[in-house]
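Sequence design from tokenized structure. All designs in this work follow the same two-part layout: the structure record, then the generated sequence. An example of the structure record is given first.
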């Protein structure tokens, strides 16, 4: 095992169990190598097997996909470096403790509930991903792009078994999850690279122009999908992990970093997972679209399935099935564990194991419904849109609070358990921009940044209005 992997295990153990209500001491700070290994493994996972093909279903052009992903992921890295890592190394608190100091315990409970439920839905999508691979040897009918309900008894049984196994392992604790993920990550990355190479051979690609022409000028979106332009790809890839960077969830990680410059290590995961892996997965789908089966489906006016299991199996055989199972597993397992921690903050008397089992049960039920995976582009956009504005509260207080004349960590210093300035800033920003998205059919990622900025500005204004002039000691 490499030094980076060893350091990563130590890091993840500490994130899950130590210094949860205090600053991380200097003696426990980690070098940039710890974060390099963690992010490289975390972002080449089960979601990538679905997201890549889904980009093709939107009829995106080569320029919009390749350049849009390049620049959008760059913005994500910059957000981690200059916002999350900057604040994380300044205060060295977990996200939850940092928020509690600003919002109060009651309001943080609402946030934990929303966070936990969304984590369960994401984990459910990854259980779906693994199920498409397990179902290949059983000749199971794969879910279609437009499916929302389970399509067979075989599907239900496979999802329930996978969900049960993942939930039990997650309940054993994050150290077990981290050890497994460390060993699996290189296999998953290798599978993406091999899938990409095999797909290029099958597509008869001999030059960069041949590669470019796979997408060309784009096409009409598949039935049930919307047309993606450069701005769709750019903004979606920037905010795919909005909850983690501008939403400040990764404060819990970067509080262990020696310097803010450790934020640059996110580029390892982003450009391996959210660039190479997405494009490799899209190439898998491009190969499948040339098959008689896919052409017949398209001719009938339907969209061919983006089920990752059969796509990977057709490219690299049994190794593809194993890689998809592992990729879904390594994403779902820590996600269920994190959901359990969020629920435990609501019911602190419950053991970690039991709340994790509850989270796993919810995730497994969600995994029965293919819509969470088949509509992953939309779900990830919604996930970031809901949680990201809360991060603006932390960012705006840190960078502008003193200049604006508001008290930092107001809930802690005033004793309030429900900071109404935070609540109303989030409700108004979320409500207004979600209404705009629904009413005027605006792509949700287009309004994530405006909602984030609005929430931060409103927080400053409301805090100025609502905070007491004097705070009792």
């Amino acid at each position: 095992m490499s030094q980076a992997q060893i350091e990563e295990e130590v890091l993840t153990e500490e994130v899950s169990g130590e210094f949860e209500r205090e600053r991380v001491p200097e003696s426990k700070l980690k070098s940039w190598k710890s974060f390099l290994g963690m992010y490289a493994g975390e972002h080449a996972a089960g979601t990538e097997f679905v997201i890549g093909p889904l980009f093709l279903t939107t009829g995106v052009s080569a320029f919009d996909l390749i350049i849009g992903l390049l620049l959008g992921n760059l913005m994500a890295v910059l957000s981690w470096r200059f916002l999350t890592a900057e604040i994380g190394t300044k205060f060295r608190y977990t996200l939850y403790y940092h928020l509690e100091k600003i919002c109060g315990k009651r309001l943080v409970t609402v946030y934990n509930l929303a966070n936990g439920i969304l984590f369960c839905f994401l984990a459910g999508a990854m259980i779906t991903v693994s199920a498409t691979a397990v179902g290949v040897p059983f000749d199971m009918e794969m879910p279609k792009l437009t499916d929302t309900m389970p399509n067979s008894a075989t599907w239900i049984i496979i999802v329930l078994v996978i969900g049960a196994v993942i939930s039990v392992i997650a309940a054993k604790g994050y150290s077990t999850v981290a050890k497994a993920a460390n060993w699996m990550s290189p296999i998953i990355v290798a599978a993406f690279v091999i899938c990409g190479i095999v797909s290029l051979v099958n597509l008869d690609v001999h030059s960069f122009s041949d590669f470019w022409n796979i997408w060309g000028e784009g096409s009409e979106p598949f039935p049930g999908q919307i047309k993606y332009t450069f701005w769709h790809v750019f903004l979606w890839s920037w905010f795919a992990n909005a909850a983690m960077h501008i939403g400040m969830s990764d404060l819990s990680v970067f509080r262990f970093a020696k310097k803010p410059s450790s934020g640059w290590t996110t580029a390892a995961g982003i450009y391996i997972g959210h660039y190479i892996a997405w494009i490799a997965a899209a190439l898998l789908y491009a190969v499948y679209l040339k098959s008689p089966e896919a052409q017949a489906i398209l001719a009938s006016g339907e969209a061919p399935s983006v089920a990752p299991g059969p796509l990977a199996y057709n490219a690299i055989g049994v190794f593809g099935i194993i890689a998809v199972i592992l990729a879904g597993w390594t994403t779902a397992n820590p996600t269920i564990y994190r959901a359990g921690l969020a629920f435990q903050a609501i019911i602190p008397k419950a053991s970690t194991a039991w709340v994790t089992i509850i989270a796993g049960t919810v995730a497994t039920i969600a995994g029965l419904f293919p819509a969470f995976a088949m509509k992953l582009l939309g779900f990830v956009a919604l996930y970031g849109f809901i949680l990201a504005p809360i991060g603006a509260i932390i960012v705006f207080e840190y960078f502008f609070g003193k200049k604006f004349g508001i008290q930092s960590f107001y809930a802690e210093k005033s004793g309030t358990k429900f900071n109404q300035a935070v609540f109303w800033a989030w409700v108004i920003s979320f409500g207004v921009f979600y209404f705009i998205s629904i009413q005027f059919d605006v792509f949700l990622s287009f309004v994530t940044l405006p909602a984030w900025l609005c929430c931060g500005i409103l927080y400053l204004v409301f805090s100025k209005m609502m905070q007491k002039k004097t705070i009792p000691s």
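The longest helix spans residues 62-91. We note this feature because it recurs in several other targets discussed in the main text.
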